[in-house]
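Contributing new records

If you add data, match the layout below exactly. Sequence lines come first and carry their own label; structure lines follow with theirs. Keep one chain per record. Anything else will be rejected by the validation script.
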Amino acid sequence: MSKKTWTISELANEFSITPRTIRFYEDQGIVSPTRDGRNRVYAPRDRTRLRLALRGKRLGLQLSEIVSLIDMYDGPGATMAQLQHYMTVLARHRTLLERQRHDIEQTLAEIDEQQRHCEALLAQREQDEIHTPAES
């Protein structure tokens, strides 16, 4: 049987985040815990929404995109409009990531070239020192 509620500490530990992060998502309206005295109590819906928000963050989505996508889960279901919106967000994000990957690959190639150049210079300097008589 699954647990029905969680404390902020339990969710923070489960997702390896800080309570402050969870409070941030609360401020953004992503999670809406109830209160038991001074303690926040998170329901399964909050846990799911938090998991989706963290996944969106890992994917590099903007907060507004994350909120929009998460809110779709509370809607009437997988309507055509929801699915089309989701596909648009995914396509836009894929394009951005592919552009970033291309930029990273170019930068890594430039770094490789500079490292090879430095290694060649170091090797040449070592050879020069071997063949140059020591000064007295």
